[in-house]
Design goal:
The complex is a heterodimer of chains A (473) and B (441).
Chain A (H helix, E strand, L loop, with lengths): L1 H5 L22 E2 L6 H11 L3 H16 L23 E2 L13 H9 L2 H8 L2 E6 L2 E7 L1 H5 L3 E4 H7 L1 H4 L13 H9 L4 E5 L9 E6 L6 E2 L2 E6 L4 E9 L7 E3 L2 E6 L4 E8 L5 E11 L4 E8 L4 E4 L2 E4 L5 E10 L4 E10 L5 E10 L4 E10 L7 E10 L5 E11 L4 E10 L2 H9 L4 H17 L4 H15 L5
Parallel strand pairs in A: 3-7, 6-9, 7-10, 8-11, 9-12, 10-13, 11-14, 12-14, 13-15, 14-16, 14-17, 15-18, 16-19, 17-19, 18-20, 19-21, 20-22, 21-23, 22-24
Antiparallel strand pairs in A: 1-2, 3-4, 5-6
Helix pairs in contact in A: 2-3, 3-9, 10-11, 11-12
Chain B lengths: L5 H5 L10 H16 L23 E2 L5 H9 L9 E6 L2 E6 L3 H5 L3 E4 H7 L1 H7 L10 H10 L3 E6 L9 E7 L4 E3 L2 E6 L4 E10 L6 E11 L4 E9 L4 E11 L4 E8 L4 E10 L5 E10 L4 E10 L5 E10 L4 E10 L6 E11 L5 E10 L4 E10 L3 H9 L4 H17 L5 H25 L1
Parallel strand pairs in B: 1-7, 2-6, 5-8, 6-9, 7-10, 8-10, 9-11, 10-12, 11-13, 12-14, 13-15, 14-16, 15-17, 16-18, 17-19, 18-20, 19-21
Antiparallel strand pairs in B: 2-3, 4-5
Classes of the chains: A alpha/beta (473), B alpha/beta (441).
């Protein structure tokens, strides 16, 4: 154990610097800069989209163009997203390779440096690796595909399995949900479509890896996961991009459908470089007795706005959001949770911890809604914020709406800094101030970090140490 | 929207020759501001979840009542404890004024109606009247208040004076569709101490009306000031009440608002802590029933190091009542050593009642201790069961628990006579609601 702790192996490399490299662009397909009907047509033609998808995209485009930026409640930094100077589609082909050997060298090297193939061999049930707009690699263990598990990209999912995916596509998050879900619906490309048949329990996690390599680029992956009755699944995603001079946009839509008694765990470790606008809409629909758990960790990006939600549609459904946010200098992590209770005896739990370092700003925004006709619903929300420097900032903006019978909610939030007494105690036991600080911060998030799969939690701790470096003294 | 209240603006009773010209000019300015300020929209964060107030043109400026009526209302404006001074306003006109002891007045105490201050002490009014805007969403109504108010209570306790007994003010509203705009300024100068208790009340329990009140509470260095009020308008009154508190170095202020009346009521309370060592305690209780809607917005604004604030707002809701709480603790950069708490508790006494809660934090300094909590739920079944095993009926047990729910807030009021008065009012309203519910069954 000891030697492992001393030398944490970079199994899943989340170190910010190690993601900071890129290869020259060699794109066969490029939709050009800016967004118009022509861009949509180009994407549709390249992907050979069915007519209904073309229609869906164009309708979404007009919604996107009509909707104003939500700056009446959100940060004005959104105004710095230059929609006209972004490239909306870049790829080197639409069919992902099933074998790493077939993946082009540069791309393969990218993912090798990020440790993706190694992890696949070790502990993953399936991997998809997306490079700019399209997946470069996608594979799933044979035993799983024999059981009927489908794990493909969005284009393939809609084209080859419309009977499964069309029913739920855009239903959990309609295009008009917000400006960025409309944008994604117009230009989506890549992402994962997963179907787990009734009763199938996928033991190992499925992993997607999202990589932005090109400058002035927007990545718009679309993920739809359907866990049929009584099935179970864990999905993990990781994201990195090199540091460019200009801002990059990542705007995903993730829809989860948990049928009766199904369980979905969705783990995100977001480590975009500090020039990425990460504006993501994530929502799950939980049917009777289903359980959906979002485990969300935001470390990178310039501005993240992400509020994973669960619509608790069936009796006794359960939703959970576990969220860790680390906001360093110049970063704004605007994260939170939405729990929409829509059936009796549903319960939800939100635990959020944020750390603001330097001039970083972490915000929690949440909504809990329990309408009048419901009985026996419960919500618990806890938000804790830790401030490291005197310039650091944290905000909490929850909204809780409760009515009905035997419903109960409780919300608690606290803000504090690392206790001087704790630091003093550790220093007199021989630790340096920086070590003591690091230990204290790790202790603050420890109970949440432990909920991540082991491979991630070791790395998360190390990453927090890295982020803390130089913030003391 | 500006045609609303145009009739009041045009009425000869508003402003006019009884006021000096500088006052009327200011008044005109605020009227223009009211007309030009936009009506809040659904997208306004400060109006989130709120039913936007419906303003119709039926309201008129409250008129003077007959002497007989005035006497009967004045007779009801008594509380069972000694007071340091008393004013009774009926429809914005001073009907009864019990001066403070001459000894205190000689030492510089001011306890006077606002109209007299406008005539006699224009400089004081210019310095202190509407000096601390509340601006938590009701800017338009603040301007309206400023345009139409001309009467209210002024309390200015001079340096070092400690007044033990409370100052008592009654504001009555009488007549169909009458509107009033009472203003209060309470200021405690350095090292002084005092308590003001105001009652806002309608002459009859169901008559329609409009009230737009503003209170300003200022505590100078080392002063201690308590400002309590009870809003008990009729159940058909639309009410706005803007309260601002300014707490300077080492001063402490306690405010408490008890809300019982009104069909629609919005209460804004902003506390500014501008000097180190300042303390602000913000309390509120409300007992809502029928279709009452009660919207409360608060801000604890920490502008200086080592300040303390504690907010506790409790709402009990019956029938289809709806409450909204939106609160914010804001700690400005360099307001280190801030210690701030914010608690909102909602007790649902009916399956159709609804409570929206938005507790918020904006923290821009790291050396702080801040927390907030919000809970919404029903009366605890286990507590009910326990009390029943001790021989109480289910109804009596529920009653006792509601009493205890408010008790936690009222216990913090040091003036026991006022706490008892408020407890009795809340109790009788809950009792009435219970009877109503029984009749329906």
């Amino acid at each position: 154990m000891k030697s492992e702790q001393e030398k944490p192996k970079p199994e899943l490399d989340l170190d910010r610097e190690s993601g900071n490299f890129h290869y020259p662009e060699q794109h066969e397909f490029d939709a050009g800069t800016g967004l118009s009907e022509k861009t949509i047509d180009y994407i549709c033609d390249v992907k050979s989209d069915a007519d209904w998808i073309r229609g869906f995209r164009k309708k979404a485009l007009s919604i996107f163009q009509e909707k104003p930026l939500p700056t009446h409640w959100a940060t004005r930094d959104l105004e710095n997203v230059k929609f006209d100077s972004i490239r909306y589609y870049l790829s080197s082909g639409q069919t992902p390779k099933r074998n790493w050997e077939d993946v082009p060298d540069d791309i393969k090297r990218t993912f090798e440096r990020l440790g993706v193939p190694e992890n696949e061999r070790k502990f993953l049930a399936g991997v998809e690796a997306q490079f700019d707009s399209e997946a470069a690699y996608s594979n799933i263990r044979e035993s799983l595909s024999k059981e009927g598990v489908v794990f493909v990209g969005s284009t393939e999912g809609l084209n080859k399995h419309p009977e499964i995916f069309r029913k739920w596509f855009g239903k959990v998050i309609p295009s008009g949900d917000n400006k960025f879900s409309a944008l994604n619906s117009a230009v989506f490309s890549g992402g994962s479509f997963i179907y787990v048949p009734p009763g199938v329990k996928v033991k190992h996690p499925l992993q997607a890896y999202f990589r932005i390599n090109a400058e002035n680029f927007g990545q718009f992956e679309r993920t739809l996961i359907i866990a049929d009755e009584g099935s179970e699944l864990m999905y993990m995603e990781g994201c990195t991009a090199p540091k460019f001079e200009s801002a990059t946009l990542h705007s995903a839509v993730v829809e989860l459908v948990a049928m009766k008694g199904a369980k979905i765990q969705y783990v995100t470790v977001q480590n975009w470089s500090a020039n990425v606008f990460n504006l993501v809409t994530k929502r799950a629909l939980a049917h009777e007795e289903a359980e959906v758990k979002w485990i969300d960790c935001n470390i990178g990006s310039r501005l993240t706005m992400k509020y994973p939600g669960v619509v608790l549609k069936g009796r006794k459904a359960r939703g959970e959001v576990i969220s860790i946010a680390l906001a360093g200098d110049g970063q704004h992590q605007d994260t939170g949770a939405k729990m929409i209770h829509a059936a009796d005896e549903t319960s939800s739990n939100v635990v959020s911890k944020s750390i603001s370092i330097g001039k970083g700003r972490a915000s929690y925004r949440g909504i809990v809604s329990i309408p009048k006709h419901l009985k026996g619903c419960k919500n618990n929300t806890e938000c804790d914020a830790l401030l490291i420097n005197s310039d650091s900032r944290t905000d909490t903006y929850p909204a809780i709406q409760v009515s009905g019978n035997r419903n109960a909610t409780q919300h608690e939030a606290s803000v504090s800094k690392v206790s001087a007494e704790q630091i003093f105690y550790m220093q007199q036991r021989g630790l340096t101030e920086a070590q003591a600080m690091s230990l204290s911060v790790n202790g603050f998030v420890n109970d949440l970090v432990n909920q991540f799969p082991l491979e991630y939690s070791v790395e998360l701790k190390r990453l927090i140490d890295l982020e803390m470096e130089g913030s003391v003294g | 929207m500006s045609q609303n209240f145009q009739r009041i603006q045009d009425s000869p009773a508003c402003g006019g020759e009884s006021f000096p010209q500088w006052w009327n000019e200011k008044r005109e300015e605020r009227w223009k501001a009211y007309c030009s300020l936009p009506f809040p929209s659904r997208k306004d964060e400060a109006w989130r979840f709120a039913a936007l107030p419906k303003l119709d043109e039926k309201y008129v400026l409250a008129e003077e009542v007959s002497p007989a009526k005035a006497i009967s209302m004045t007779a009801c404006s008594v509380l069972p404890f000694p007071v340091a001074g008393r004013m009774v306003f009926v429809n914005g006109k001073l009907e009864r004024f019990d001066q403070s002891a001459q000894g205190l007045l000689d030492k510089g105490l001011i306890f006077k109606p606002l109209s007299a201050m406008i005539q006699e002490r224009p400089e004081w009014v210019k310095d202190n009247f509407m000096a601390t805007p509340v601006a938590l969403g009701s800017e338009k109504w603040e301007a309206l208040h400023g345009a139409f108010t001309g009467e209210g209570c002024v309390l200015d306790i001079p340096e070092g004076m400690e007044v033990v007994e409370p100052f008592l003010v009654f504001h009555w509203l009488s007549g169909e569709n009458a509107s009033v705009f009472p203003h209060t300024v309470a200021r405690a100068r350095a090292g002084s101490r005092g308590l003001l208790f105001e009652v806002f009340i309608s002459q009859s329990p169901h008559i329609s009306g409009f009230a737009c009140a503003q209170s300003e509470v200022v505590a100078d260095e080392g002063a201690s000031l308590t400002s309590l009020f009870c809003q008990n308008w009729s159940d058909s009154v639309q009410s706005f009440h803007m309260n601002s508190t300014l707490v300077k170095k080492d001063a402490s202020v306690q405010t408490l608002a008890a809300h019982l009346g009104s069909s629609y009521s919005r209460y804004e309370n902003r506390s500014r802590l501008t000097g180190s060592g300042a303390r602000s305690e913000m309390l509120a209780v409300s007992m809502l029933q029928g279709e009452q809607e009660f919207d409360q917005r608060t801000l604890q604004d920490h502008l200086s190091p080592n300040t303390w604030s504690d907010l506790l707002y409790k709402n009990a809701l019956n029938n289809t009542a709806h409450s909204i709480f939106q609160g914010l603790i804001r700690v400005e950069p360099r307001a280190y050593g801030t210690d701030a708490y914010q608690t909102n508790r909602n007790l649902l006494l009916s399956g159709d009642a609804k409570a929206d809660s938005m507790p918020g934090l904006e923290i821009l300094d790291d050396d702080v201790k801040c927390s907030h909590g919000a809970t919404t739920g029903e009366v605890d079944d286990e507590l009910l069961f326990y009390l029943q095993t001790r021989g109480l009926s289910r109804e009596a047990a529920k009653h006792l628990l509601v009493h205890g729910f408010f008790g936690e807030v009222l216990d913090r009021v040091k003036e026991k006579g006022i706490a008892d008065y408020l407890a009795a009012l809340l109790e009788s309203k809950f009792g009435r609601a219970k009877k109503k519910a029984c009749n329906c069954e």
